[in-house]
Amino acid sequence: MRISYKKLWLLLLERDISKATLRTDLKLATGTMAKLNKGEEVALSVLMRICQYLRCDIGDICSVILEEKSTY
């Protein structure tokens, strides 16, 4: 299982908000922003702050990608 923030990036584009603006407005650490860019896990509190800033639901900014189990 992994997480995808593709919905977040699309939402930012729709609303004409740059990643730099998001980071600055929410005072996100550069490490947190790097994790978002790499599709790595970040704290739920960060995702909630992003949702509050964008006035959206958590499902509007991220999704879980289920990876198929390999059978041997």
What does this 3D model show about the protein?
A two-stranded antiparallel sheet has the order 1-2. The chain is mainly alpha-helical. It has helices spanning 6-14, 19-26, 30-38, 44-54; strands spanning 2-4, 63-65.
Average residue-wise pLDDT: 94
Give the overall shape, derived from the CA principal axes.
elongated
Classification by helices and strands: mainly alpha
The separation of the N and C termini measures 19 Å
Keywords for this structure?
two-stranded antiparallel sheet; 72 residues; elongated; mainly alpha; 4 helices; single chain
Kindly summarize this structure in a few lines.
By secondary structure, the chain is mostly helical.
Topology at a glance:
Blueprint: E1 2-4, H1 6-14, H2 19-26, H3 30-38, H4 44-54, E2 63-65
Antiparallel strand pairs: 1-2
